[in-house]
Amino acid sequence: MKFEELPTPCFVVDEELIERNLKILNGVMTRTGAKIVLAQKAFSMTAMYPLIGQYLSGATASGLYEARLSYEAMGKENHVFAPAYRQDEIDEIISICDHIIFNSFSQLEKFKDKALKAGRKVGLRINPECSTQEGHEIYDPCSPGSRFGTKSEDFRPELLDGVTGLHFHTLCQQNSDDLETTLNAVEEKFGQWLPQMEWINFGGGHHITREDYDIPRLEACINRMQEKYGLAVYLEPGEAVALNAGYFVTSVLDLHKNGIDIAILDTSATCHMPDVLEMPYRPPLFGSGEPGEKPYTYRLGGQTCLSGDVIGDYSFDKPLQCGDRLVFGDMAIYSMVKTNTFNGMPLPAIAIQRKGGDCEIVRQFGYNDFKERLA
Hints:
Blueprint: E1 10-14, H1 15-32, E2 35-39, H2 49-55, E3 58-61, H3 64-73, E4 77-81, H4 90-96, E5 99-102, H5 105-117, E6 121-125, E7 163-167, H6 176-190, E8 199-201, H7 215-229, E9 232-235, H8 239-242, E10 246-257, E11 261-265, H9 269-272, H10 275-278, E12 296-301, E13 310-316, E14 325-329, E15 349-353, E16 359-363, H11 367-371
Parallel strand pairs: 1-15, 2-3, 2-9, 3-4, 4-5, 5-6, 6-7, 7-8, 8-9, 11-12
Antiparallel strand pairs: 1-10, 10-11, 10-14, 12-13, 15-16
Helix pairs in contact: 3-4, 6-7
């Protein structure tokens, strides 16, 4: 199937671009000896797991279902972190995960012995209280009142027996200078316990495959922890695996006017592109410009009843027509994993663009996918 023959709306993941990202990540692993695992919360397209498994060490999960997904579909190292674990899920989590990271000493007291008895590696998430983000408190694990990680003032070293690693995750779409700043805070607040550890996990949020990312600085950070403390180093990026490696194809259903030209698409920011509203985020659209940059400006809106179901304002070289196909870029990450069926919106199809350019639909959804998720 050719790209232009795909149904809309449709997510399309480019196999060649995914592999390009994986080669960059694998290069970091090869040069430093660090291990990089996929954070499934950003990208969990299992059709890509065999390819990802060729280059990365495994995956990390945010709970039981993601842990099962990695265990079944990738079969390599399987890490998990959750703010708290359920009593009725912990046994299965322990049975399929290699590294189990706890958020607090109370969680350690509750489940550590069970994990150690099963031969699992046990870690503790720490909060270095070092915010390096600006304007995105919703994504900042170090913001005041954060529920993530144990602060140094609450540390209970008498409970560290059996804990072999520390984990922190403070970044979101950031460069390695912010990682370096965070490592300074980690050493300042938790350095006295690092020598007794075997590994450290730098978490995610590293935009390693972005064009301007400073990889040598990242590798210096990795080497620093290895050489100074003898620690094995893990990183768990999600976005970096599929950054700029996916598209979202949609069609114009109708044209409307209310002080501005409006195009109604067969998609929805609310249902199919929720980061547009959460970040907020303006996804790149091929062949378009900023409002007023090109002769014809349109507000692109979705089909739902939510008044704010708007993707954004874009300009074009010529007027839009019903049936025109629009292609958004960088739509592999935090897209498929967040879709929903509000208002009964159908879920988009999912396709792969193979290296030769041909496309293959790997999943289509229908009415039953909407109906069966409700009671």
